[in-house]
Design goal:
The structure is a single chain. The protein is an alpha/beta fold. It has 11 helices and 8 strands. The protein has an 8-stranded parallel β-barrel with strand order 1-2-3-4-5-6-7-8, surrounded by 5 helices. α2 links the parallel β2 and β3. α5 packs across α7 and α7 crosses α9. The radius of gyration is 17 Å and the shape is globular. Bound molecules: 2-phosphoglycolic acid. 2-phosphoglycolic acid binds next to β8.
Length: 248
Amino acid sequence: MRKPIIAGNWKMNKNIKEALEFVKEVGTRADRDDVEAVICAPFLQLKDLKEATKGTKIKVGAQNMHYETSGAFTGEVSAEMLQEIAMDYVIIGHSERREYFGETNETVNKKVLKALQVGINPILCCGETLEQREAGVTKDHVKTQILAGLKDVTKEDLAKVVVAYEPIWAIGTGKTATAEQANDVISYIREVIASVYGDLANEVRIQYGGSVKPANVAEIMGQSDIDGALVGGASLKADDYVALVNFK
Ligand code: PGA
């Protein structure tokens, strides 16, 4: 059985004070044994968040990292630095990173491998633009992203990777893919993973992301191949985050 994983992606929101208030407000209300709850916050908030979530079941993740250990990379943060503050997860290759910060399938792959090397679980993002969906190339595009992103990931490490399918046209737009549309691409992603890893693909958790909110999370999570959600906007309010994690 794949344990569902609900991860908040705060993006560039909340200062340290607000982050700590959020954790206080959530308390132990997002503690479920049958669902993994994660918060991915800006770098500066991570150490305090990790400390503040002790005594709860909430795990903490970063939203990016560099693939080199150290060196002349002004403005970057390494996987080892995240490991030092015991990060559980790191989002890799979010569409905003690909679009605004020049991330490619190659850098995404290097980051996935590096995160696994230091023992941080990567959340590998993929997804198509509206133009690609309308041109009917969604599956081809996602296949390329997934095969490139997972290149050289060993069979032993595969299940540590979480995949997030996020159609770009559904991110922050209020336009959710229908649960069936999301499930269709997600089952296809599992087939693509199976083409390389065989039955181990059944152990990989695949999330849907894009305008998930308390009102639609249950329908999304009710789909056969969807194992979680990566949630931006709706993860910023404590009560909504609690409702997302406690989907029925
Ligand atoms: P959204 O963002 O939930 O605000 O659409 C999702 C994401 O970008 O991870």
